[in-house]
Amino acid sequence: MPSLEYTQAETPLPDNLKKWWKESCVYQVYPSSFCDSNGDGIGDIQGIISKLDYIKNLGSDIIWLNPIFSSPQVDMGYDISDYYGIHPPYGTLQDLDELAAGIHSRGMKLVLDLVVNHTSDQHRWFQESRSSVINAYRDWYIWRKPVFRDGERHPPNNWRSYFGGSAWTYDEGTGEYYLHLFASEQPDLNWENPQVPAAVHDIVRYWLDHGADGFRMDVINFISKDQTFPDAPITNPGSPWQTGKQFYACGPRLHEYLQGIGKILKEYDAFSVGEMLDVDDAAEILKAVGHDREEVNMAFHFEIVNMDHGPTDKFAQRKWDLGELKSIVSKWQHFMHDNHGWNAIYLENHDQGRSVSRFASDQPEHRELSAKLLATLLGCQSGTLFVYQGQELGMPNVPQDWPLDNYRDIETLNHWKELTSSNPEKTSLHQSALTEYRLKSRDNSRTPMQWDDSLNAGFSTAKPWIPVHKDYATLNAAAQVKDPGSVYWYWSKILEFRKLYSDTLVYGSFALVEAENRDVFAFVRSPSARSQLPPQALIVLNFRPYEVSWTLPPKVISNPRHVVLSNYPERIGSKLTESGSISLGPMEALVCFG
Ligand code: TEU
Ligand code: CA
Question: Which of 234, 298, 376, 480 could anchor a disulfide with 488, C-beta 3.0 to 4.6 Å?
């Protein structure tokens, strides 16, 4: 891990590497849990329209909506049955037009979710495909003959589905298996068939012509698979099913496929972020996000959000430490900066537990400080920033007494079924799974947005589809918008700083300070030499819920060093002195300009 104690202004960034989408902050809306306008307990498009000023006032530039398309909702809309229709509880095409107009009139952009690794099993394409081996759509999905061993029928290989069990489901009708890396209701599309990319291109164009400004692309690095479909090596001896990731994550034809989409995106100067699961090699991701690749603008990697996953099971316990976090952040910051790629910066989304609970502290006395600390960590990195609904309020995970009945997510529920059926007696295992769900279940971030202290947190007049967190009476948007010391206003300040000092905070280089310090995460951001009077920024983050003494090493940043932002307001305006110790408060965050 490089520990650069001194950084100099470096070679200037060519102007053609500056882009509107690099300087943007994306606000992610989970439609079913954002705002319910018609009292059916489910968020909807009109609900989103009613909150556009709230999103704009925070300082967001782009709104990304999770899938809003027709879907049986086996996986909350990631199982699409019609790419051209809107899921009726969310509204109509007219509502979407109105939303796009409302977003555009406020100077923001709209990003939709493109889910094209798989469809719903209810999609007409799949219904056709499964109807017969000679149907014109047969080859739109991945069908393989069974393997027979000792007269018994087995799937074509041992790959595991992300939602448990085999990644193959047998179809009685035609006597073959189809591949689904996720639920059996989410069959994988066969991109080898040129009609599939052509159909995807039509979808992309259609939505770009109908108000969308770009896409977030679901598990986009899975679309090209090794066509020999080999058995995966055994990495989890306890299970018959193994991860086959090396055979489909960033597969052989990925870049060809991405360039096909990229060509269209370029015509529209559209926004794009690819979700890239199961790849930690930055060089591999650079092949898609490099500035001259014309594939996707940036990608979500999973190295940080997987730090607390067990090696073979997400819900196995794993403790992470600050050294790991520092080295992962540093790796991606250096790599993309040095290679003219681009990072997507996030700690939360609809698949992740809340960041205060996982990466800092959600204890009542530390939750707010923690939310601001993490906002500082995110907001002071180079990359496009993603904020997930409720993160701007510092919402924590579900409470400790959240019963199993309250969970809705297929991943969690399937895990529970698998665990309890294979270990019916082992209650200690059950207990530890429940503890891990409270940390990592996807439902942690899917509870309704907390607007105010009225019934159901102002989310809905009816019983919400998933229960509201009980802390809403005190933790809600209305209270925070009124309070200049709130997490909400802290985020707003950070977003403003990124705009004012983009040469430093968005485009600047990154250097860790004291890589080996186990309590404090400190780093320097330096703008390129061409910028006029650029501030260098020193960021100091105490990740401990207690006081830590810290000494600013010499030559880290040029004089003077004023604190311009802190979650301890009394610190603002003070000066850090070189080689003098300061006592950092619990979860203290400092941003100093020099
Ligand atoms: O997620 C990819 C994915 O596999 C992980 O998010 C996974 O669900 C988990 O967090 C790791 O154990 C995308 C979508 O964001 C997710 O909501 C969908 O369920 C999934 O793809 C399938 O479309
Ligand atoms: Ca509704």
Answer: 480
Whether residue 275 lies in the annotated active site: yes
Cα(467) to ligand 2 centroid in Å equals 15
Q: Can you give the pTM of this predicted structure?
A: 0.97
Residue 553 contacts residue 5 (beta carbons within 8 Å):
yes
User: Which of 263, 266, 244 lies closest to 255, judged by CA?
Assistant: 263
Q: What is the third-level CATH fold of 18-119+194-399+445-488?
A: TIM Barrel (3.20.20)
Catalytic residue among 113, 121, 176, 275: 275
* Bridge partners, residue 539, by sequence: 523, 591
| Tokens read off for 342 | 């681009």
Q: What dotted CATH number matches 124-179? A: 3.90.400.10
CB 314 near ligand 1, within 6 Å: yes
pLDDT single digits (tens) 36-54? 999 999 999 999 999 999 9
Q: Whose CA is nearest to atom 14 of ligand 1?
A: 218
Q: Are 78 and 121 in contact (CB under 8 A)?
A: no
DSSP three-state, residue 163: coil
Sequence ranges of the chain with CATH classification 3.20.20.80: 18-119+194-399+445-488
- Token readout for 130 is 């499964």
The CATH class, in words, for 508-593 is mainly beta
Query: Which ligand 1 atom lies nearest to the CA of residue 314?
Result: 12
pLDDT category, 594, cuts 50, 70, 90? confident
* Ligand 1 binding pocket includes 443 (Cβ within 6 Å): no
Of 36, 176, 218, 436, which is the active-site residue?
218
Ligand 1 atom with the smallest distance to the CA of 309 is: 12
Does ligand 1 lie within 6 Å of residue 83's CB atom? no
Task: Provide CATH 2.60.40.1180 ranges for the chain.
Answer: 508-593
- Element (DSSP H or E) covering residue 94: helix 93-105
Q: Is 202 a catalytic residue?
A: no
User: Does residue 75's CB lie within 6 angstroms of at least one atom of ligand 1?
Assistant: yes
Beta strands 271-275; 214-217: pairing state: parallel
